[in-house]
């Protein structure tokens, strides 16, 4: 069904203008929908690279999956009460991030347990809210599976704004955040506000989750917050460099995924959504990097 | 009230410190006064509360009773005056950070954002690196160091701060005997400039470098000098023991019929 929507989106301008087959895939750049998708993909890459690097080095990848699924509760609430589902997703992700952070820090509860609870509770709430909503939730699947080709223009603005907030906050507290990720106990002995910094990290992950839901959907967010950063880690040995490289990798994957998807649709009449292509591309980068670099770093460490 | 000679500043004062977990006492009535520039060794069996004591001094644990004062201030206000060198690196060796940046984290402090780190911070880090012979490793990823180099990084990180009181938690536990001597020599060098508390099992070597030795087993046995009496050992280890010191290792024999304290 997603594929049909996309085919429609892409095919419509094609048929209007006609005879575009000769132009190759760069022709895609003519279409406002494609331009917007590209813009969102590139902007989301920043959130993906910066926050994904923290997620990977702090080893909280499952947390990013948990928060994105918890956000589905907010999507459902949006349908039920009639406000923009993405706003609900943002609220739910932030709330769950802070609740997990506080519970983990204050009650010493295991992070993986908390993540599983929030993950499933959020999904359950989302399904419940949607079932209670009057009528049919038409584009619910776009939140689950993502629909980068269909992002409304206000989402572009939101992604850009969230990006700015993320970069600003990380710029302000980079060394402190790195310190708590690297050696939390030592950070405590320095008197750093470890709990507040951890909550800041939770908030950053929540914001990044909301950004990335636009690109690949709730289910695949965990991949974009993990794979590009993990790939970058294989090539560089500084956190800041890892963030830059992960951003570039993610930009390459989203751009590549969009063009690949367009090309298939245009030339072979095969309609697949770009989200999964983006993920698979990033996994391919990771596998290739592992083959090229994994052995080397293992040798050096040993 | 005789006019006493000018006494150095008191670096660390523990007054009847008590700590228990779920009703089980870990520290009981621990008292101690340590002058600035002193080098104190702390020994005690496993589970004697040595780490808890260090954590209490660092302000990571709140005592149930008694008080801790570091250069006249409570732990919560003296993070900048105490630095901690853990037994081993608990962090992820794969973390993307270089040696110099690890050492620079020692300069972070609350109320002064990390982005404001300046030339003085960097100069302090570089001099700590130089002092510990790590300059050539400054730009290496933290995991690509040997055990001895890693231990020196942990020390450099602590030295980089302005802390006058340094706490070492069994820094020699994972080092070869050849490195242990070098480390003790270095700690000896710090004496006078900083106050050092060294937790160790290495009673033999330790007595040759420290100014005083304290024995801890829930209670503190401390006389302000480095004489270890048979009574101190007996009270600390809970049973009469003979200890044989040869080279850098000691073997504790327990020829008694009582039950071993757990």
Q: Your description of this structure?
A:
The complex is a heterodimer of chains A (302) and B (262). Chain A has helices at 2-17, 32-57, 61-81, 85-107, 111-132, 140-145, 153-182, 184-189, 194-216, 221-224, 227-233, 239-268, 274-301. Chain A is mainly α. Chain A is globular and about 60 Å long. In chain B, helix 3 (119-131) packs across helix 4 (147-160). The A-B interface holds A 57, 59, 171-176, 178-179, 181-183, 185-193, 233, 236-239, 241-242, 300-301 and B 58-60, 79-80, 82-84, 86, 90-98, 101-102, 104-106, 108-110, 113-115, 117, 141, 143-144, 157, 161.
Structure summary:
The complex is a heterodimer of chains A (302) and B (262). Chain A is mostly helical.
The tally of strands of chain A reads 0
What would the average pLDDT of chain A be, to the nearest integer?
Answer: 87
Any idea what the shape of chain A is? Answer: globular
Strand content of chain B: 25-35%
What is the share of helical residues of chain B?
25-40%
Number of helices of chain B: 7
Head-to-tail CA distance between termini of chain A: 51 Å
Key structural traits:
heterodimer, A: 302 residues, mainly alpha, ABC transporter involved in vitamin B12 uptake, BtuC, 13 helices, 80% helix, disordered N terminus, disordered C terminus, B: 262 residues, alpha/beta, Rossmann fold, six-stranded mixed β-sheet, three-stranded antiparallel β-sheet, 7 helices, 26% strand, globular
